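Posting for a labmate who doesn't have an account.
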Amino acid sequence: MAAEKINQAHEHGQSRETVSYLKTSFLKWKPDYDSAAAEYSKAAVAFKNADAHTNNKTALEQAAMMLKEMGRLSDAVCLIEKASLMYVENGTPDTAALALDRAGRLMESQDLAKAVDLYQQAAGVFENEERLRQAVEMLGKASRLLVRQHRFEEAAESIQKEKNMYREIENFPTCFKKTIAQVLVHLHRNDFVAADKSIRQSYSLPGFSGSEDCVCLERLLQAFDQQDEDAVHQVTNSPLFKYMDNDYAKLALSLRVPGATKKKKLPAESSEGGARAGEVEPEEEDDEYAGGLC
């Protein structure tokens, strides 16, 4: 019975009809991806009924690629998720996680929330296999997309997971950078207490206390606490913040302090065309002829 089902599956996946759907001719300019995808889906069902996992995954991925070419990304990703589950069941979790990563990249242009979910799934697969370096890379992608969607509370939790993993693999310098990202997220949530707690927790990391990252963060929190937006702007425009991942660099540049007061700029800081450094602009004199000669 299984052999019969496998033969049926191969007939769907390699039939003349399937091949013809993908060919073009003088009268047929575009491949019929819709029909081809349907045939591959039938093949996947047949392989599943025959319990032929390897062939089933192949058929599902072929159907997914057809759907992708048709612009039906959501349907394609659904099939990739099914294939990834079969990879895990068949003892190839790395392949499953990589498939989910590819699906996440596909969805970034269409559905950021779904892309986050796919990256988190991939991270989970890698973490279960104790491959933390790969898992934390997937989590990093999810965190950045959460920030892009202004889902700051979830982003803060995701970054904390990253920090925990980097700490476990003893990549402390990257922990410092994740602390900066987490502080920015908390400040955008107007949660000064959480931002301060994030820094305090990082004091236990080897090398953090007294580092450039630590000093800049302390200056940032002090300026934020004093509601000095100019000082905040000065810190967030430093190279340490500007050369972060793009989503976090944007967070730094867009940071505003509620109820902040701006200090008056010195002449040297004035806009182009104003007084130069060390010069004082002359006071305007009343024009005694402003009303004419009468």
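Reply:
Got it, the structure tokens are right above this. The CA atoms of residues 158 and 255 lie 20 Å apart.
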